[in-house]
Structure formats: structure tokens, C-alpha cells
Amino acid sequence: MPREGSKKEETEMAQKDIIFIIVAEQAYIHSADSSRDFSYGNEQLFTAISGTYIPLLNLFCTLEAEHVPFKLGMVMGAPLCTLLADAQVQKQYVSWLDKRIALGELELERAKDDPDMLDNVRSCLRKLQKDKLDFTETYGQNLLKKFRHFADKGYLEFIPTAATYAYLPHYADIKEVLNAQVETGLYAHRTFFGETGEGFFLPYMGWADGFEKLLRSYGINYTVLDTRALLFSGSPCSTGIFTPVRTNNSLVLFGRDSTVPDVISGPDGFMHRAVYRNQQRDAGYDLPDGALEDFLGTNKTRLQTQFKYWNNGGSTYSQQDAQAQAVADALSFFSTQKEKLVQAAAGLDDSDAVLVCTIPAALLGSSWHEGILWLEQVIRAAAAQQDVALGLCRDNLQKQFTLQKIAPYPCSAEGTGYAENLLDSSNNWMMRYVRKASERMTDLTERFPSESGIKARMLNLGAREVLLAQSGDWAKMIHDGQLPEYAEQTFKKNILNFTAVFDSLASNTVSTEWLCNMEKEDCIFPWMNYRVFSRKK
Prior knowledge:
By secondary structure, the chain is α/β, with parallel strands linked by helices.
């Protein structure tokens, strides 16, 4: 509601919010074979659980116990939630921890004559032991339940995203794909968290013309876009990124502060300071084969052990020095963001101002060890003063139907602003296969509009495989050189599985055994209804 009163009263009441959105996104890497050592494929997930998700929950518990107010937005995609809720994955994670704890006992003996090294070994070992205790006892192996607890208390706002984090502009001309990704993502979010909320986080913040109609048709009130979408729009935003705007059909758009990624993870960003722990240099790569014989197992693949003893400057890591630097960097960051908001509010005649900061979850503990401490200090700095507070997007929709209207500029937060890394010479071969599979899935819904029994299960499997093939993770992993062979193999498997479904339905021959095996292997979206790919009448 518009504020009334004198200019002085308006100044005192002007709301200045920093909105943090933590983007937790994970490729669907899963194995149904319990006898298989799948730690290599699950390395990303397990590192994230120990490095980010458990520490985040511990931080939230501490803040709640100390009555420190905080508000954060959080995006947790369906693949991540499915894996966190999977009993087999949970068991694999505990085994992953046990393997590293056993190595830590050997490391204590190896480092006994080096006091500095020994301190780091003890610190890493204590962390692994506490992770196991937290995961198994404190949180009962159910991290999602605890995250939901903080959402129910009003500390977190969960923001839904697409089913498999597909880069939606690649399918802007195939409406059925857009509908399937959004509808499945919303349903999955409701399944895990009990509600779908007000907003929707577009994967990679990819925007294309017409997306406003798509999102509003599902009752979505807002999304977050890259700065370019607002500043390069046909009718430039008079308030920049410091107030939300809207499309012609009143979808609210928040522009992110595009300087934040560089400040944190750019070439000169905080995380690269010499004093911080080097997350890439791990004992698993430094130690001789003999010292890792039991840890490496039969496949002899070098893995991160979570025992990291060095800082980015090449010296022995000092936890005390790193923590002091994290506090200083947090205060510097908060001071800079606060100054931006104060100046913006003054330029807006002391009206409300917001500043949206999106942060990949990996930066909070996984790829930047001190990231969790940095976030804690930012939260505490915000709580210690009155001028600027942490806010949520959903709390800034009061003027939804009176905001400035714009036509957002098509862009992305990936690559240099146009997600060119998701469709380049390394991965562009994938697009023709996934688009053809998407078109065929839509055709199948026309040919089999109301199936049940085995045929419906086949169609549901086909829909799942197409959604998984559309995931932007595979293209990004290939481009970044991060498990590229696995990403290529998984994408091909998804396409071949769908092709098998398509051919089986065409020939009216279904292998029940094969179907059961595939349902067990790709157990995401167990409630899938293949009709999400149907053409809307």
C-alpha cells in the first residue's frame, strides 16, 4: 500500500531490503545398483551435503537459537530434492563419510610430527565426524524436513524452478516443453515442500519473449532476471534494478545485482584470497598410491578425500587467519550493498528499494570453504542495524499492479549473458536429439490420450527420460569439463531409453522386465503423468 504522511515520515519508513537467493541445483546422478561403488558419480552431491547443506542447516539452527533474525530465498530443484530424499543415496553418503573418516585416522599417524599439518588433519576429521553425527542423528537423514522447518518459521522462502533445470529459451518455440518443465517443477516443489509459493526461478535466469504468459498461466507472480533484462528493455527501467518492475500482464520482475558474482567468485573475488583454504588441492591427489590403497578401492580412481591442508597462497592453511578474513570480507560486502541501497533510496525520493543477490549454493562451503562463515557474518551485520534488512521477494509484491511496465530483453545469467556455453561446439550435437525426442513425446500424447496400465507406465517413463535429457546440467558439465564423459553417457542413455519407449509403443511390444528396471534406475517424478506434454486446447 502507498505510504502516507510527510516527507520526513516517508524517509523514516522507507524500506531497504537486501534479498539473498541461494540457488541449490544438482544434476540427477543416481544408480540403482547397490553393489556398485558410485562415489565417483555422486562426488558433487556428497561434497555439497558436507560442504553446504549440513553447514547451512547448522547455521540456521544457531541463528534461530540466538534469536538472530534472517530471511533468505532458496531454490532447491527437483533432482536435488529427489536425491536428498532417496534412502539409497543417504546410505551411500554415510558410506562415503565412513571411508573418509577411516582415512583420517591414518592421516593422524602420518602427520604426527608436523604440528601445523596435524591441526589441519584433526580439523578435517572432526568435520567429517560431525557431519555423520548431524546427518544421522541431528537431522535423521532428512535434510529436506529441516529446511522445510525454517520455511514454516518464515526464515526461508522456497522458490520453485523447472523440473530438470532445462535452459528454457532453447525450447521457446515448443510450448509443450515449456509447459511440461514448469508444471512438473511446480508439482515436484509442492510434493517436497507442501506449497508452490509466489515465484518461479527460471533456470540460468534464461528469458525469452512470451515467458510472461507461460508463468502467469500457472499463477506465478514473480521471477528474477539478469540485470540486462531490465536495463536493455524497450522501455528502460527508470529505477534500475532497485525496484521491481512488471510485464504487460503484471508478472513482477526483480533484477539481480550482476556485480555480486564477480565480487565473490570473479578473478579478484573474495574466495580467491590467499588466506582461504584451497578447495582444489586435496590429499587424495597429493598422497602416494600406497597411502591411499584402502581408500581408492578397486577402481583406483583419484577422488577428493576432504582432507585439505593448504591455502590459496600455497602455504599451510590457518583456520584462524581465514576466519578473520571472512569476517572482514562479510562486513565489507554488507557495507557496499548497504551504501548502494541508501543511495538508491535517496534517488527514489526515499521510496522503498531492494537489491537482489543470487548466490550459487556451491559457493557457501563447497567451492569456498569459508563461504558459510561469510554468510553468517553478513546476516549478523544486517541484524545489528536498522537501516537495511534482509528481505524476501514475496514481501515486495504489494505494488504488483502499479509497477512500471517493461518488455524484458532476452538474456541469461549464464555465459556472458546469453548462455552461449550451453550451446557451443562442445555440446551443440545434443540439441537435435533432445528436440526431436520432445516433439515425439508430444506426438505420443496425441496418439495415446488416455492410457492406463503398462502403456501408461511406458509413457510416463518416456516423459521422465525426455525431461532428464532436457537438463541443462549435461551441456554445462561437458562445456566445463566436469565429468564430461559421464554427462554425455547419461544424456545418450536418456535419449535411447525414450527411443525404446517410442519404438515399443509403435510396435505394440512392451518388455515388462525392461520397464521395471528403468523405473528403478530413474526413479525421479514417481507420480509423473505423461499428459504434461500434451498440446493445450
